[in-house]
Please model this.
Amino acid sequence: MAYSLAQINEAVRSDPQGFVQECDAAYNKKIENAARKIADNLSKSRIVLLSGPSGSGKTTTAKKIEAKLEQMGINSHAVSMDNYFKTVDPETSPRNREGQIDYESPFCMDMDLLNQHFAALDRGEKIRIPKFEFARQMRSDIKSQPLRLGSDEIAIFEGIHALNDIITGRNPAAAKVYISARSDITGESGEVVFKRTWLRLERRTVRDSKFRAWKADVTVRMWANVRRGEKLYISPFKDNASIMFDSTLPYEISVIRPFAQPLFDHLRVSPDMERYEEVRHLADAYPLFEALDEKYVAEDSLIREFIGGGIYDD
Model:
């Protein structure tokens, strides 16, 4: 799917509030449809597996599904699989082809513990969800949180590897959801002026800068490996999902631009960096978009996951 740059800019100029509300309403309809399918699967499994590449909006989508299920009378709990990352050990962590730690690899996850917890929850047993501290690259069991599911309760586990065969193979009855930004922005002649993958890169760059204490240069340098990881570890398993989301919000570039453009304009990366041209084209595209004040964006909007100010912020 693709959205028209001209139509986006016209909507931003003529009725910014109505445009944002219309886009968010369409996304919330997807949430409602997914929640109904998940509810129908409760008799088979109390586990929901929600996956998608980095920057897709998995966390907010999981929490919005959780809220919708609550409205339907089904207690649910959103759990980030990021908390199941192993503490980073330079000696044992998987490496990419450049010899750097491959943070996109499923082998950075404690898959055994995840599968143990899925099985325990389906049996109605209590587990303790660990807490991963990104700033220290460590998993803390001291900060773990208890969770036990009742017969009418659901746990939504969201993470980039949630649909990996290592997990779905041992949890075939779980409801399975895949989410990604899947729409480009096109110009007057139908040419792509902002790629769907760029949406996720800008989301990730802003989020990492604001909430994970990472400089934009670090996030951007990792992008080539992130994309390789997606092709190796995420995309091949998307067909395991029975529910698919396009998380693109047509207004989002206009809103995120004030946050993202300064980061991309002041990058300190060399032209020989892999995917350098892609990053430069992304930065050069921002002036094409009308600015949209974030005051029009609801606190429960998906884009709040990346710019902050949302009700789902931890």
About this structure: The first strand starts at residue 2 and ends at 4.
